[in-house]
Amino acid sequence: xxxxxxxxxxxxxxxxxxxxxxxxxxxxxxxxxxxxxxxxxxxxxxxxxxxxxxxxxxxxxxxxxxxxxxxxxxxxxxxxxxxxxxxxxxxxxxxxxxxxxxxxxxxxxxxxxxxxxxxxxxxxxxxxxxxxxxxxxxxxxxxxxxxxxxxxxxxxxxxxxxxxxxxxxxxxxxxxxxxxxxxxxxxxxxxxxxxxxxxxxxxxxxxxxxxxxxxxxxxxxxxxxxxxxxxxxxxxxxxxxxxxxxxxxxxxxxxxxxxxxxxxxxxxxxxxxxxxxxxxxxxxxxxxxxxxxxxxxxxxxxxxxxxxxxxxxxxxxxxxxxxxxxxxxxxxxxxxxxxxxxxxxxx
Length: 347
What we know:
By secondary structure, the protein is an alpha/beta fold. The protein is built from twelve helices and nine strands. It has helices spanning 3-31, 36-42, 59-68, 80-83, 93-104, 122-125, 129-146, 181-192, 211-226, 249-257, 274-289, 325-334; strands at residues 46-51, 71-74, 108-116, 153-158, 197-202, 232-235, 238-239, 262-270, 294-299. An eight-stranded parallel barrel has the order 1-2-3-4-5-6-8-9, surrounded by six helices. Strand 1 (46-51), helix 3 and strand 2 form a beta-alpha-beta unit. It is globular. The two termini are 40 Å apart.
């Protein structure tokens, strides 16, 4: 073999290797999810948002929701005051509009929420004792039956524990019907919709050492030991500078998952901006991906201006519908890269 032939073969070998590298890079780029929904689905999770039916005529709002999210929660339209404004008289029109939009765009739906001390209709607020217990159970049964087969998971009971630091139950009219009211609600929900996942949902349960977290954990452990039908625990995850994502967040999710329930981040928003906000959003996403039974993340709203905490700019899209640094950080993590590395799935 002469020297010219050897140089040609070396050059060709390098070219072929280079083309192979380019092809592999192109395939990796193609494999990376370009939206939150796609990237989360590649990780076996969902990524969702809360929608308000009054904004479904906002084209920018619905375009972002359709493109980026695969799970939809009704912001207020399926709560007690919206669905049973008068005792025994049910109105599903607003909730149905959310469900119809979601299913019409190929989305799943999280139901929120069947029993809660807040946003009760006026007639229920003045009730107590056995009459209230029966009214609550009827509400759970009727609403879960109406949406049977259309809802992936229900927040059956919402925010039943207090924030007074001792892990006690919230002193609500529902709690005063008897300490078993939560499990009674879960039993009614299971009977009404056997296939939906049934979740307990709360806030300030993010740190494993918080007495409230410990109390919810003890309840879930007890329910699991006695066969009370609970399938998942929702962590609302409302964070700000005074209440940042705790260092033990992953531990909290894992401890609950170890009880044999799914864990879901259900109402995520993080007040702030720039790199600090992006870092916290990516940290929450990383914690979910690290726990096999963390099945998905829902942010509570589409754009900052849609948030109940709008002044804190807590979401992934700004008021003009533009992707924020936090969006890119979350997408990078979902695609298997480090926050801020440009989303490479191979880094």
